[in-house]
Amino acid sequence: MARWKTAGIVLLAGALTVTGCSGGGDTGPSGDAESVLSIGSTTAPQSWDPADIGDANYKPYAQASYDTLILRQPDGEYAPMLAKTWSFSEDNRTVTLDLRDDVTFSDGEEFNDEAVVANFEHFSSGTGPLSTQLAGLESAEATGEFTVTATFAEPIPDLVYNLSDAAGRMASPASLGSDRLATVPVGSGPYVMSEADTVQGSVYTLTAREDYWNPELQEFDEVEFRVFEDESALLNALRSGQIDAGNLTNPDSVQNATAAGYTILKPEAHISWFGLILFDRDGTMVPELADPLVREALAWAIDRETLASVTLGIDDGSIDTQMFNEGSPAWSSELAGTYHYDVDKAKALMAEAGVDGFTLTLPASGLFTQGMMTGVQNNLAEIGVDVVWEDVPAQAFISDMLGGTYAASVMVLGAVPTDWSVVQNYLTPTSAWNPLGTTNDELQALIDAIPGQNDTEREASYRDINQFVIDNNWFQPWFWAEENFAVNEDAVQVELQLQQNVPSIYNYSPAA
Amino acid sequence: MLTFLAKRILSGLVLIALIPSLAFVLMRAGSSDVARQILGQTASEEQVAARADALGLDRPLVSQYLDWAGRALRGDLGVSWFTNEPVAQAMATRVPATLSLVIVTTIIAAVIAVALGLAAAYYKGWLDRVLQVLSIAGFALPGFWLALMLVVWLAIDNPIFPATGYASISDGIGAWARSITLPVTALAVGAVTATAQQVRGAVRDVLQQDWVRTLRARGISRGSLIFKHVLRSAGVAGLTVLGLQFIGLLGGAVFVERVFAIPGMGQVLVTSTAQGDLPLVLGVVLVTTLIVVIVNLVIDLGVGFFNPKARLS
Questions:
Q1: Alpha-carbon torsion A345, A351, A356, A361, what sign?
Q2: What is the nearest CA distance from B5 to chain A, expressed in angstroms?
Q3: B10, B2 in Cβ contact below 8 A?
């Protein structure tokens, strides 16, 4: 009996000792870093290969490890980064880049013209989500020491943007093609991954590179990305000081963060739009959809405000009929309310088209709340359109849509970074989101002209394309969801990035 | 005894082969577009097809499975389709996190449950009634809610413990213990009440046996009676339910992993299943099956220790 008592006392003492030894703080940032930036996210990079890192929420991950050829500043202006200068040929098909000669990668390899060529070839030959940023690359050559010339089959209107983004990220040539690059980045960027303190899919810790060539972009000793499957856990981490910032999508989380005194930044660029996509503009599946009056009637029949409320929960969406993001040259505040809920007008258009009603089969998805689906069904029923929701397995939803199975679909589409991306992804005959290959001579003429135009002419073309889409109702956005970026301003200061849903990593600085 | 062990090991091996096969079939049975999920909405059909081809998704299912099984036998569990991390490496970081939670919870549940169950069965009266009430409360309290409340009380309003995250033992025993205190507390409440009830019932049954009355009549001390004789006889029930708790916690810990953002097996299994990340799912299922087989073997050996009649040949 005495032995049991003794054992019990020893165990109890040990437990108290162990829990009392705090080891210097909570499970926050590691090591003895003086200044640490900790960012919470609900997304983790699927790969650290610069050719495979995605857009939007993935940008800060990439920026921490990789420099780009061109730097896009918070106001959208471009500045030199790894490329000191860049110039275009008269036909805009060839770009010449003069490179810095004082940069090395974290593995010691030199950054030079050969490195750029290797990266361009790696990027354009891959299947990464942004590989189209170098679409049509015909050749990339080292034409002089620290000079690269790249030629494309067609001019790329967004090439300067692309070289400030995914296409411009430079990894060490020695690492390209290595399986290891998928989990450990090897770039010339301001921070280097600490593998010992990194748990893939959970915590990514990067420490400041000692010999980094541009200390102005290196505000912290350490950057930590924490991934949360549950947004309430992200919010708890923010409230307990474990992270300094993070984006919130749940309206309740936003309210809680606001009530707790955290600053909620709302970037001008929204994250996604909800709306109706009318794939069958030629009426091959649903003949009535070939009539522009019928498509317009659908736009007038939808009660956008109510759908935004039942979908987003609070007044956290922008009612907007445009598929170009606010802040882009194509967007116009005057066009945001082109269509609004007007059943009488919708009915009049249907009557003018000589259509009493028709059946519209839409694929159902877990992306949509029941409230939204019911709302759409009821709204369209008022003008004689009988909506039939068809259950589709979640993992087949998008592929079935893009396979041309449906004449139309409700959808939530993530914002794409540039106006040319909007055109390429949605509006050309070969666009992924034009599965039935619909063409229009007027629209195609606008698209074809863009590569050869200057910036001012392109902006006008994008506005014309925006007007075309609104007039012809190929895509019917109802509302855009706001991005909500919560920041603990006692710990960090951050500047938003134009047309970006999350700030660039360079835009953070310590509060003190 | 050796024959008994051999039979158990053989049945365990069959399970280890069978369960991942079943998981493979279930994962691949539904129509899925993993390549599209990986590349995102804006990828073209050509890109999606190229990625699907690179992943071997259009090969016959049997061929895909045999390929995985062959590599698994050589210790190669493949690479996650979504994170590109070797599955074995992912398991190496996540298994310790989940096992930390489960093992510590089980130990705490065992100690507290045995003490409570024993006291309730031996002393009866108000102590027994209190245990009944506590058991009902423990079952009724939703674990997820309790976890969130613990975070608010003890991590945000009173920052004694971290709100999220996991520190491995290599980061220091103190940091590790602090990081698992709240999650283990959330898990232990249900485990303690379930186990205590079982121990109480088993001890009560044993105390009513004639041989216990005989031992008392012979003047054996209370401590010796309880710890040398009664607990040993009642140990089978307690050990069995603890074993079941342990196995249940392997999957049940997912909710605390989610609330506390602990990179454990449960969390990765939920995410990878939703994504269709087959290599990672199979890796988690394989490791989980292995742990379950081992735990069952340990329970059987323990039962054999407590009850010689169970040591079948």
A1: negative
A2: 32
A3: no
Interchain CB distance below 8 Å, A200 and B90:
yes
What is the three-state SS of A282-339?
Answer: CCCCCHHHHCHHHHHHHHHHCCHHHHHHHHHCCCCEEECCCCCCCCCCCCCHHHCCCC
How does pLDDT run across A461-496, given as a tens digit for each residue? Answer: 999 999 999 999 999 999 988 788 999 999 999 999
Which pLDDT value is given to residue A392? 86
Identify all chain A residues contacting B84, using CB atoms and an 8 Å cutoff.
Answer: 46-49, 179, 182-183
Of the candidates A77, A56, A204, the residue with the CA atom closest to the CA atom of residue A130: A56
Angle made by CA atoms B61, B66, B69, in degrees to the nearest 5: 125
CA gap A102, A82 in Å, rounded:
9
Alpha-helical (H) ranges within A153-288 are 159-163, 231-239, 251-259
Pairing, β A385-391 against β A508-510: unpaired
pLDDT in tens, A388-423: 999 887 767 888 888 899 999 999 888 887 899 899
Q: Do B32 and A396 touch (CB under 8 A)?
A: yes
A2 touches chain B (CB under 8 A): no
Contact A416 B42 (CB under 8 A): yes
Burial class (CB in 10 A: 0-12, 13-18, 19+), B25: exposed
Distances (CA, A) of A283 to A277, A295, A302, A474: 14, 11, 21, 12
Cβ of A395 under 8 Å from any chain B Cβ?
A: yes
- Best of B28, B33, B76 to substitute, by most chain A Cβ atoms within 10 angstroms, is B33
pLDDT of residue A16: 42
Size of interface A-B (CB pairs under 8 A): 184
Pairing state between β A36-41 and A245-248: parallel
What is the bridge-based pairing of β-strands A222-227 and A36-41?
Answer: parallel
Q: In the prediction, which pLDDT does A12 show?
A: 44
HEC assignment per residue over A107-158: CCCECCHHHHHHHHHHHHCCCCCCHHHHCCEEEEEEEECCEEEEEECCCCCC
The Cα–Cα gap between A405 and A510 comes to 51
Distance CA A278, CA A292 (A): 11
> Which tokens go with B187?
């898990």
Tell me, yes or no, if A20 comes closer than 8 A to chain B by beta carbon: yes
Model confidence at A297, in pLDDT bands (50, 70, 90)?
A: very high
Q: What percent of chain A has pLDDT over 70?
A: 92
The CA distance from A216 to A169, in Å, is: 19
Q: What is the least distance, in Å, from the CA of A53 to any CA of chain B?
A: 10
Nearest to A23 among B79, B159, B174 (CB): B174
Our CA-based measurement puts residue B287 at a distance from the nearest CA of chain A, in whole angstroms, of 18
Residue A305 in contact with residue A320, Cβ under 8 Å? Answer: no
| φ, ψ (nearest 5 deg) of residue A106 | -70, -15
Cα separation, A399 vs B276, in Å, equals: 14
**Would you place residue B82 in the very low, low, confident or very high pLDDT band (cuts 50, 70, 90)?**
confident
Picking from A331, A332, A333, A328, the residue whose alpha carbon sits closest to that of residue A161 is A328
SS3 A242: coil
pLDDT, residue A6, reads 44
Nearest to B181 by CA among B151, B158, B152, B157: B151
Cβ–Cβ gap A232/B259 under 8 Å: yes
Give the neighbor-by-neighbor strand order of the sheet with A94-99.
A83-88, A94-99, A147-152, A137-144
Q: What is the mean pLDDT of residues A305-327?
A: 80
In chain A, what residues touch B58 (CB-CB under 8 Å)?
none
- Work out the minimum CA distance from B311 to partner chain A, whole angstroms: 28
In whole angstroms, what is the distance from residue B158 CA to residue A363 CA? Answer: 48
B contact test, residue of A175, A181, A198, A240 with most B CBs within 10 A: A240
Q: What percent of chain A has pLDDT over 90?
A: 68
